[in-house]
Each structure stands twice: as C-alpha cells, then as structure tokens.
C-alpha cells in the first residue's frame, strides 16, 4: 500500500513540475511577444510639431536656383518628419470632438530640415531596453510607448490641457477635478478616484465604464497594454521614463501663407455617412441588422448624420422576403429587393435635423419589427482631427528647378514607424519616410549627383531601406542602404534619365513595407525643364491591409494574410481616407493651368487615374519626360511602382473629384477633391448644379 501511495505521490509531483514549467515558458513567451510588439511603436510619433530647422540648414528656396542666378556646388534637400501620435486612449479624455472632422490644422513639413535625432537612452540602459516591471505587472517603459496613443490629446505637464485634460498626477485624483477643463456632465458626476484598478477598467472600454462621456477612442485592446500605460502614469514625474512631452511647435515664419481651415464642400461622389443593413430575423421578429463599422450586428441600428450631409445606404436582402427601406422625413425610399442576396443602394441629403424613423414599407413589415431611428444633428462646426494626420499635403513639394548646371544634391530621409489617422475613429501603425505618407517629393535635374543619407529611427522595430527607380545600379540603392534601427548609411548615385519615378523601401517583406506607407516620388527634370504651369500637386495612391474591417473604429493592425491574398481593406490617396477631400483638398482658380504628379505606391493594384469633369490636355505617359506628351486624354492607367504627369487648364468653377476609375474603390476610401474658384463660364458649361452636389 505504501509503495503504491509513494508512486502516486511522485507522479503527482512530476505532473506539477511539468505543468509549472509549461506555464512559465508560456507566460514568458507572451510577455516577450507583447514587449516586442510594443517596441515597434515609435516615440518619433509622439510629437505633433515639426522639429526646428537645424542651424545652418538652407531654406527651401536654396534647393533650386532661379534662371540667371549662380548655383551653389552642393544643395541640401532634406525633410524632418512631423512626428505623429495616434488617437487618445488615456483616462479622462473627455473631448466633444466628433468623428466627422471636416478640417485639420496640422503643421506642414518643410523640405529643408534635418531629420530628428533619435532620443538618447537613459544612463546605464541600452537602446530599446525596458525598465523593470512593477509589482502590478505593468512596465512603465513599455507604457511610455503605449502612451503615444494618448499624447495627441493629453499632456503630462501640470495644468496643460490639450484636447483632453492634463494627466499629470492623475493617480489618486478625483475624476473631473482638473481645473479649467470643460468635462462632460457624465465625467463630472462619475465621482471616481483614479487608481490602477479604476484606470484599467476605464481604458478597457471608456464608454461602458462611464456612459455618456465624450472620449472618442474605444479603448486599449490588451490587458498588458493597459497595465503598462497605468504603470507609466504612476511613474514619478521626474523619472526618465516619464519625460515624454513633445517639443513645442516652431512659430510660423513671417509671410507664410496660412492653410484654409474649411475645405470646399465634398462632391456627392463621396458620401458623408455610409451605412449597410441587411434584412433578417432576430429576437423573434423581422428586423434590419447593421453590417460593418459601428453598427455591425446591431438590430435596427440607430443611424446618424449631420444636417446637410449626404447619406448613402445599402440594403441587402438577408432571408429572401421582399423588402425596402424608407426615410419619409427625408423624402428617400429605396427600390424593393426580392430574393436572398439581392441588394440596392440609395443616396439622399439629410435636409433637416431631429429624431426620425426609417422602416420597411412592405405591408405588415413595419408592424413586424422593421423600424429604426434616424437621428440628424444640427450642422457640425469645423473641428480639429483627434487622430494624428500622417497624410502629406498635395502642395508639399519644391518649386521647379529652372535652368542650371548639374550639381550634387543631398537628400536626407528618416525611416520612422508612427501611429496615425487612417480614417475618422481609426488609426494604423504606418511605416514612413519622414513621418508622412507619401514620403517627401524629391526634385533634381538630369545630371545631378544625389547624396542620399538614410537614417533609421532608434525607435524602429524593423530594418528599412530605400530603392530609387531613378537609380542605375543594384537594388536602386537598396543593396547599399539597408539600415538597422538607430543607424545611418549614405551613398551617391547619378541621375541619368529624366522622368518621374517612384521610390520605396525594399527590405523583406518588400510588399509589407510599401503597404505600410514607405513610398514616394522623385522627379528628374530634363535639362530644359518642363513647360511652366500655374500650380503643381503631389498625389499618390496606395493600399492598406488591416486586421479589422473597413470602417470599423479602433487601432487597426497590419494583416499579412490579406496582403498575400491581395485583399486590401482600404484604398487611399496620400495615406488615409479623406486626406485629399476632408483634410487637404486641392485648390486652384479658373484660368489656371495645373499639373498633377501622380504615382502608385501599391504594392499590388493598377490605378485608372481620372479627374471627373476634366480632360487632361497633356499626359507624360509612364512618367516619361523625354517623349512628346499625348493630348486630350480622359483616363490614365498607372501600374504599381509607376507614375504619370498630367497637365490641364481649368475653365469652369466647381469641385472636381479625383478617383481611380475602378470606382468601387470609392467605397474603400479612395477619393480626392480639386476645388476651383472663379466666375462661371456658360459658353462651356451652362447649367445649375443640383443642391447638394458639391459643385
């Protein structure tokens, strides 16, 4: 009997030891994975202001020489990134900002600044090393990386409120207690004391924990992220890990032209609010069920819009009975759909504010449960984008070079991994050149020697490189310029052939680096220059592959499976949805000639580039500047890694929509606006634009 009990006892001890070992290994692996994931985030994205120009750096005008002026032997052409951050997620962010932001007021990147140096490590700590985790399981150094999601809206300086209240000394503070900050009634009445447990619960789901507060971000995804950021907020104010405030934005130079705050109205090609519902049976009755975005899976979801907005709604027949959808107070009604899988789409303008209903007009269906609420708020005032804007403005490019002799041109690029705005309420972890998508527009002359310096931010998790399609040599330079985080490499190459060329990162997996935003254009001007035009614009198309569906709010992550299957969730111009419509529309005047430098970063889809309502007078096909341009062209095919130059004269005022004429991509975010001001021209276009068409 004793021998048998002893054998069972030894067996039990062995099982406990093995199970303990497996648990420790599993826990260690998950922690390492979490830290590795967090280390991908960059502190270069924590500032929303530009880095001041380095002493002695030339201004933008020094990049080119006007006719007749003596050119210097070497020109420096470099861009400092606008370090970005992602949307707010820290406690007590109680802004009233809406997700439908018509305008953004963000600083521009000058093309004559040195790249920002990587932040120094703390004494005694190697770059990227994490501090010791706290007893509660949070690592304050890892939390510092997570906190950049909050830094657009929250300061750590006492009394310095931004879009959200200052979080200095938040541990032990009462909710709604920051002086001089306008909290919502819900936060004022919450009567919370911020400690580790309360902060964790709030960060997991702010709306659920404090119903009715105005924090726009849905919360942090993982318990580890929450524990880390709580540990960071609890760190002593003077500690190295707590010093994360961005530098102040430089003053605007005298004579600089302010960007317009209110972009032109958006043409009806781009709806302001887009919804999809399908018919079905739920809760024992006939209903509409939301599909995608914030209404996904909700029964008879509440649909919202602002007065004057264009609403697009798609109805899918989910079970085979006959259905339609009616908005009687807006004079909108869909055709009926019969048969499972059939669908229809309607668009209408929300003409008046208030609480209304929508329903199915098939006899008996409304009474059976097919009725929901449609809320139209008063017209929105312009507001600032909450999420950091990584989209490069279309006017951010150097002026023409003019006639000069060949020279050496220095180009500085900084590879930086940043979290930024993908769409309203959605952010994405971009990989960038100089903090923007696309990278800086580089302009040189045929015969110039390019002295390229590529620096990889010390906060990067990945090796990065650059391949110039304008280069003759192995890898377009990428064979030389593979740069580890925190390192810098340089080389020179000579521009032999004029034209407009793409450049991009060429580090394996190359397609992933491109899809995450690492592409741009370089123009090699011919010796005699291109014909003069009044305005020039810089536009690039790309695809983004996210783990969450198009339109879903939150912090989107990259999906390699969708990349390999070539199934992008988003198609974008200049990096994000609405970049060239809501945020930075193109502006010009009647009588002016405009030139668009257009390229496709890709990595996979060809663009059918088209401007609705215009005809291209001159097209430099494939970006070639040596052949005679073709004339009178409607649409141009541009392959991934390709480019085109188009010129046209503006003769009629109004808004012109920039699209890929594979027009389903409009539904995935791809559209821009060229807004043209000036007197009407009835000899060419004589008609009254319908109300709400945006023209």
Overview of this structure, please?
By secondary structure, this protein is α/β, with parallel strands linked by helices. Helices cover 12% and strands 26% of the residues. The strands form 7 sheets. Strands 1, 11, 12, 14, 16 and 20 form a 6-stranded mixed β-sheet that branches. A hairpin with a 2-residue loop joins strand 2 (273-282) and strand 3. Helix 4 crosses helix 6 (223-234). The longest helix is centred in the N-terminal third of the chain and has 38 residues, at 2-39. Mean pLDDT is 77; it is low at 1-6, 20-135 and 244-268.
Number of strands: 30
Shape: globular
The main pleated sheet reads as:
6 strands, mixed
Number of helices: 8
Overall pLDDT level: 77
Strand content: 25-35%
Structural class: alpha/beta
- Determine Rg (CA atoms, Å): 28 Å
- How far is it from the N-terminal to the C-terminal residue, by CA? 94 Å
The low-confidence runs, each spanning 5 or more residues with pLDDT under 50, are 1-6, 20-135, 244-268
The portion of residues assigned to helices is 10-25%
List keywords for this structure.
single chain; 695 residues; alpha/beta; six-stranded mixed β-sheet; 8 helices; 30 strands; 12% helix; globular; disordered N terminus
Give the helices and strands, then pairings.
Blueprint: H1 2-39, E1 74-78, H2 140-146, H3 185-188, H4 196-204, H5 206-209, H6 223-234, E2 273-282, E3 285-290, E4 303-306, E5 310-316, E6 326-327, E7 332-333, E8 343-349, E9 354-359, E10 371-377, E11 408-423, E12 426-433, E13 442-445, E14 449-456, E15 467-468, E16 488-494, E17 499-504, H7 510-515, E18 519-525, E19 535-544, E20 554-556, H8 560-564, E21 570-573, E22 586-589, E23 593-602, E24 607-611, E25 616-620, E26 630-633, E27 635-638, E28 643-649, E29 654-660, E30 672-677
Parallel strand pairs: 1-11, 2-5, 4-10, 11-14, 12-20, 13-18, 19-23, 22-30
Antiparallel strand pairs: 2-3, 5-8, 6-7, 9-10, 11-12, 14-16, 15-17, 17-18, 19-21, 23-28, 24-27, 24-29, 25-26, 25-28, 29-30
Helix pairs in contact: 2-6, 4-6
